[in-house]
């Protein structure tokens, strides 16, 4: 153990010599490397004790970068605060202050960690990308206004690809020097937004903050668009809650939100808007294969409304992001789940940080059948054709249809000439991600 700590101690001695006795030194370490062959928590405590004489603050994380990216940066599949126990145990063995972190975004949980003596300091990283004003909101008792980190790894994936950051819920991250902060419009205008999904809500709030008069039409009785479908999946609850946070921002900014209102050409033109932002979203892609409308079929977007229909043996038809995440949830619920995907791999379009952790979560929980095309649904499962046109039957009592989304181009076509300025954003422009919808909504409002 002495030799394993030697390099760290020599570095710390050198740093102390350079900065002098009055400068605080913080040391970050993993409480456990969390894999067979790595050091465990017992050894982590011994390492902490050996390092302690040379530091002023011990920052306890987990895992290694060589194995298990999701241990050091907990994914949505892990509990919030899953690494706190490591800091709590190490704190019993050292006298310097101990800090903890790992997927924390709830102020109440963070307060509890401190109150229970599990750590002296709580750190956040991704949570402050999502909402840099989180500490200010906590101090003002405005916890409900915090825009929570989704733990979707957009930030990490973008850094891997472009060496910068992006954030699904904060379109300013990585663009700080581009001059795209909200500024008052020189001339207030009347703006109509069609659609109350994430892109439409972001557009409406941004336009209202710029001083425009904003009306938002939503055809459903609840805001959120596609985010509503996430409410039945516990590890995606932050996505559902995002719709409430964005809606609250809109109401506070004075947006006139009209629920149960379908935006027709006549209705929009009656308002005589100076600008129209179309954020009508997408609808599920449901191919006309035999049996697709049967009682044993649930469209993945409607699962939150029809989950009681799902029996113990499930076939998920479609191995994209929605299908894979639904399969994980169903397996967690104790279902026997098989994912059927026409392509050779699952969710190839998912971001490079989230995808491997998602596949790791599926491993051992879900049966995966790639290279199969569903051609008929029966009460006993899905009949498929493989890549050599051989018939293959995948058994199941319930079928979840997760074959993607299709843009609502009909809405766009009807409304595209209803105002002097018209902008189409989000899925109704091109089916993509929540990240794209929020970014496009924000910038559409800046352009008015």
Automatic annotation (TrEMBL):
InterPro entries: Aldolase_TIM, FAD/NAD-bd_sf, FAD/NAD-binding_dom, NADH:flavin_oxidoreductase, OxRdtase_FMN_N. The keyword Iron-sulfur applies. It holds the Pfam family Oxidored_FMN. One of its GO terms (molecular function) is iron-sulfur cluster binding. SUPFAM superfamilies: FAD/NAD(P)-binding domain, FMN-linked oxidoreductases. Residues 1-141 form the NADH:flavin oxidoreductase/NADH oxidase N-terminal domain. Keywords: Flavoprotein, FMN, Iron, Iron-sulfur, Metal-binding, Oxidoreductase. Its cofactor is FMN; [4Fe-4S] cluster. It comes from Anaerostipes butyraticus. This is NADH oxidase. The keyword tRNA-binding does not apply. In the N-terminal section; belongs to the NADH:flavin oxidoreductase/NADH oxidase family. Residues 189-441 form the FAD/NAD(P)-binding domain.
């Amino acid at each position: 153990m002495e030799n394993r700590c030697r390099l760290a101690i020599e570095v710390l001695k050198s740093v102390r010599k350079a900065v002098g006795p009055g400068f605080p030194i913080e040391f970050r370490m993993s409480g456990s490397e969390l894999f067979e062959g790595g050091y465990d928590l017992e050894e982590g405590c011994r390492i902490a004790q050996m390092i302690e004489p040379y530091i002023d603050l011990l920052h306890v994380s987990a895992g290694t970068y060589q194995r298990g990216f999701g241990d050091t940066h907990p994914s949505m599949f892990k509990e919030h605060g899953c690494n706190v126990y490591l800091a709590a145990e190490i704190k019993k063995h050292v006298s310097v202050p101990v800090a903890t972190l790992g997927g924390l975004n709830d102020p109440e949980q963070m307060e509890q960690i401190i109150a229970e003596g599990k750590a002296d300091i709580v750190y956040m990283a991704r949570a402050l990308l999502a909402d840099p004003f989180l500490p200010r909101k906590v101090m003002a008792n405005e916890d409900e206004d915090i825009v929570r980190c989704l733990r979707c790894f957009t930030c990490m994936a973008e850094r891997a690809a472009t060496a910068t950051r992006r954030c699904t819920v904060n379109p300013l991250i990585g663009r700080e020097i581009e001059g795209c902060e909200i500024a008052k419009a020189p001339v207030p205008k009347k703006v109509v937004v069609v659609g109350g999904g994430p892109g439409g809500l972001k557009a409406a709030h941004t336009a209202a903050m710029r001083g425009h008069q904003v009306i938002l039409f939503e055809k459903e009785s609840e805001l959120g668009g596609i985010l509503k479908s996430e409410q039945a999946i516990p590890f995606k609850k932050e996505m559902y809650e995002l719709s409430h946070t964005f809606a609250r921002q809109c109401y506070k900014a004075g947006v006139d939100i009209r629920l149960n209102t379908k935006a027709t050409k006549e209705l929009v033109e009656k308002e005589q808007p100076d600008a129209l932002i179309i954020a009508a979203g997408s609808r599920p892609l449901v191919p006309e294969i035999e049996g697709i409308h049967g009682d044993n079929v649930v469209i993945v977007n409607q699962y939150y409304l029809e989950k009681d229909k799902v029996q113990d043996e499930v076939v998920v038809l479609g191995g994209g992001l929605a299908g894979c995440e639904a399969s994980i949830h169903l397996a967690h619920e104790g279902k026997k789940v098989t994912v059927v995907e026409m392509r050779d791999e699952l969710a190839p379009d998912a971001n490079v940080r989230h995808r491997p952790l998602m596949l790791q979560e599926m491993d051992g929980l879900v049966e995966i059948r790639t290279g199969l095309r569903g051609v008929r649904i029966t009460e006993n499962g899905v009949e498929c054709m493989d890549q050599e046109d051989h018939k293959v039957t995948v058994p199941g009592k319930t079928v979840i249809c997760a074959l993607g989304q299709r843009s609502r181009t009909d809405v766009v076509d009807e409304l595209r000439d209803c105002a002097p300025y018209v902008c189409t954003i989000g899925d109704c422009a091109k089916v993509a991600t929540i990240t794209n919808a929020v970014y496009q909504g924000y910038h559409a409002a800046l352009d008015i």
